[in-house]
Design a protein that fits this description.
This protein is an alpha+beta fold. The protein has one domain (13-65, 72-79, 100-328): Bira Bifunctional Protein, Domain 2 (BirA Bifunctional Protein, domain 2), CATH 3.30.930.10. Helix content is 36%, strand content 20%. It contains 11 helices and 11 strands. Helix 3 crosses helix 6 (168-174) and helix 3 (33-55) packs across helix 11. It binds adenosine monophosphate and magnesium ion. Magnesium ion binds next to strand 10.
Length: 338
């Protein structure tokens, strides 16, 4: 389902200036009808996602904010370290390790989880990076990538459809024409994605994640959201499960938005045995000693699981058709803008 490229939208210097002043003077920008419309749409998205996941037997859990460990695989971004009763804790960069803990309690959970990542200052102008953002993070025990992607198809459909139905005035105000996605989103493999990009002149490392600029380009070729599957194990964190039948590939996927909006979700099946995780940690260069409770928990045993996290501000940005993501956070923190 690859289509002709859609013309690329650029972030104008005016928009870049708006980011600075919009963020610094948020108490003013938040008063505008435009800001209100975006936040109302965001509220509708959250409601629709909650309603859908609740109907599928999920339980919402409150997400951690800080802890002794968090997701290390955040590609070039820094982690915030804070003193905590004589120990150094970190702000959550994602709740992956904690979702695996939750699996020991209940087989389907979701959270609206806060993440802080010190992205490089240059990502201020990508239009899609915040330094503080929320993921709708979900996890299911004893399931596969296929099932999780099918759930993602429905979730996205429900979110977009409910905004389409309930937020007509807001969409009109934002000048956004929203198309409903198909019920089953197209899927391409990582290798196929690289092939499309190679034809476009991108010479990419087949062992690394696709850089955001190439992803942006790829997403211009599609007119619906789409999945990329079968990432190389070298491009993913230690918690992704290596495919037994295809060594070198992890059972993982990303969901990309069309029109240049790019990645909105990453997920996959998880390594859940202590042997599997420590072997993967040796490959990724992570030290098992630093993961205290996580390794102890794996030794006691947790169920296999799969899941994904969707960036809420990125989803809002796409649904509302907003050039820069800062407008999709009520209290935006943008990389490089203290
Ligand atoms: P990751 O763990 O890097 O795959 O991130 C999972 C999801 O969180 C991404 O697909 C995005 O939707 C969202 N996300 C990651 N980093 C950022 C960021 N800096 N700003 C906004 N959303 C982000
Ligand atoms: Mg990702």
């Amino acid at each position: 389902m690859v289509l002709e490229p859609i013309p690329r939208r650029r972030l104008s210097s005016e928009v870049a200036k708006d980011v600075e002043s919009g963020v610094r003077f948020r108490y003013r920008s938040i008063r505008t009808p435009r800001a209100r419309a975006i936040l109302q749409v965001q509220h509708q998205i959250s409601r629709a996602c909650r309603r859908f996941l609740d109907s599928k037997g999920f339980m919402e859990v409150l997400a951690p904010i800080i802890g002794p460990v968090t997701d290390p695989g955040i590609r070039g971004a820094g982690t915030v370290v804070v003193p905590f009763y004589g120990k150094m804790y970190v702000l959550m960069t994602s709740m992956i390790l904690y979702k695996q803990m939750a699996m020991a309690s209940y087989p389907r959970v979701y959270s609206f989880s806060p993440n802080v990542r010190l992205e490089p200052s240059a990502s201020k102008s990508t239009g899609r990076h915040l330094a503080e953002f929320y993921q709708l993070d979900l996890e299911m025990a004893n399931t596969s990538c296929d099932e999780v992607m099918a759930l993602g198809d429905r979730l996205l459909y429900e979110a977009i459809n409910s905004v389409h139905k309930e937020c007509k005035t807001q969409l009109e105000q934002l000048g956004r024409t929203l198309h409903l996605p198909p019920r089953h989103l197209p899927r391409i493999t990582f290798t196929e994605a690289l092939k499309i990009l190679a034809d476009e002149g991108f010479d990419l490392d087949p062992k690394a994640e696709i850089p955001w600029i190439a992803e942006h380009h790829l997403s211009l070729f599609f007119n619906t959201p789409f999945w990329i599957t079968d990432y190389p194990y070298t491009s993913r964190g230690f918690f992704y499960l290596v495919d037994d039948d295809r060594p070198g590939v992890v059972r993982s996927m990303d969901l990309l938005l069309p029109e240049g909006y790019g990645e909105i979700s990453s997920g996959g099946e998880r390594e859940y045995t202590v042997e599997g995780v420590t072997r993967r940690m040796r490959e990724t260069g992570d030290d098992p000693q630093k993961y205290g409770w996580y390794i102890d928990m794996l030794e006691e045993g947790i169920p296999p699981s799969a899941g994904f996290g969707i960036g809420m501000e990125r989803l809002t940005r796409y649904i509302c058709g907003i050039p820069h993501i800062w407008e999709c956070s009520p209290f935006p923190k943008v990389p490089g803008i203290p």
